[in-house]
Inverse folding.
């Protein structure tokens, strides 16, 4: 009985955390790029997020090895150094994640938080496409229908924000936020690029994760170790002059450090959700995050919620639920949850858990 309660608590705690992280990250990135004062360099923030994630995952791997330092070092050497071919495979998602994170900062700088949040849900579509192409997965007709709804919803959201009046368009073109000109097309392209890269990196990472008996935390250590050099190169290629003139941590304050920690924790939270929750509950979390962002944007960023935007956002939310719905699934799991969890405590994954692997 206690095992059931603990697992249930972990499931809902992870889902609540994911919901808040999804909503708060979009709002925080937008605020960080539009608030008064010195603007920090997004490339350095991405690099610091990877560094924080590396330290966190190293601690988790150390804990997995029974807090034995010699065993911990031996495992790192065996996985990373003694197996260079496997490590090189992780180079691909490492580079992709760095580019994706930089694109998200660009998108947050040029789109309002609500539009950014809804548009970024297109990563579901790109993930499905790469799952079919790379992993040869078959999608249900309801899932393809959900993807069409998703696309229509995002298009409506973008159309709702399009300025048709010539004078309004001229005013929008000259709009600046703390010295940075707002370019909605650039923000949209950056968000779409991030969606495309997110789908590819997620499916590729799934393939290499399932192809070897290596924990998620160790894979994240490999990712971060390889992402750090890529991130450093990105910093000095795109912002070398600014870094030498103002310093690496130019524009940093407590809020920027909070943003770095929030972004670093995002990947770790998803791993916990995949372990303890299911696809329908993840749909609840993502949908609720969209609603929170839209409502908060009205009060924080003076976002005007139009009928077209609301209808488009509603289609996105419905599509997320529909994508996680399986009409062929028998509703028999609720008959004895305590029995199922107790039998598998400390053992291998249950069949329904195996389906949740990304």
């Amino acid at each position: 009985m206690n095992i059931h309660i603990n697992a249930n608590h972990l499931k809902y705690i992870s889902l609540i955390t994911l919901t808040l992280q999804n909503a708060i990250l979009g709002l925080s990135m937008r605020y960080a790029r539009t608030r008064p004062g010195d603007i920090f360099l997004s490339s350095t923030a991405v690099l610091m997020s990877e560094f924080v994630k590396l330290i966190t995952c190293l601690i988790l791997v150390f804990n997995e090895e029974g807090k034995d330092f010699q065993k911990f070092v031996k495992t790192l050497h065996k996985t990373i150094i003694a197996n260079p071919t496997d490590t090189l495979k992780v180079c691909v998602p490492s580079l992709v994640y760095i580019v994706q994170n930089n694109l998200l900062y660009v998108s947050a700088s040029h789109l309002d938080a609500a539009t950014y949040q809804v548009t970024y849900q297109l990563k579901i579509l790109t993930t499905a496409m790469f799952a079919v192409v790379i992993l040869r997965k078959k999608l249900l007709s309801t899932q393809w229908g959900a993807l069409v709804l998703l696309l229509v919803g995002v298009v409506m959201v973008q159309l709702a924000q399009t300025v048709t009046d010539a004078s309004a368009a001229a005013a929008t073109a000259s709009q600046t936020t703390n010295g940075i000109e707002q370019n909605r097309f650039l923000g949209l392209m950056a968000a779409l690029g991030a969606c495309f890269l997110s789908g590819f990196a997620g499916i590729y990472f799934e393939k290499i994760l399932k192809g070897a008996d290596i924990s998620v935390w160790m894979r994240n250590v490999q990712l971060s170790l390889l992402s750090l050099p890529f991130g450093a190169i990105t910093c000095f290629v795109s912002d070398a002059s600014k870094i030498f003139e103002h310093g690496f941590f130019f524009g940093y304050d407590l809020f920027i450090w909070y943003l770095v920690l929030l972004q670093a924790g995002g990947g770790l939270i998803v791993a916990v959700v995949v372990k303890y929750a299911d696809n329908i509950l993840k749909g609840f979390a993502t949908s609720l995050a969209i609603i929170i962002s839209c409502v908060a944007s009205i009060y924080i960023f003076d976002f005007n919620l139009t009928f077209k935007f609301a209808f488009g956002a509603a289609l996105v939310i419905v599509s997320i639920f529909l994508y996680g719905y399986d009409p062929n699934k028998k509703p028999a799991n609720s008959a004895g949850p305590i029995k199922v969890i107790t039998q598998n405590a400390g053992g291998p994954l249950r069949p329904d858990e195996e389906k949740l692997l990304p």
Observations:
- Confidence is low (pLDDT under 50) at residues 1-5, 163-176, 332-358.
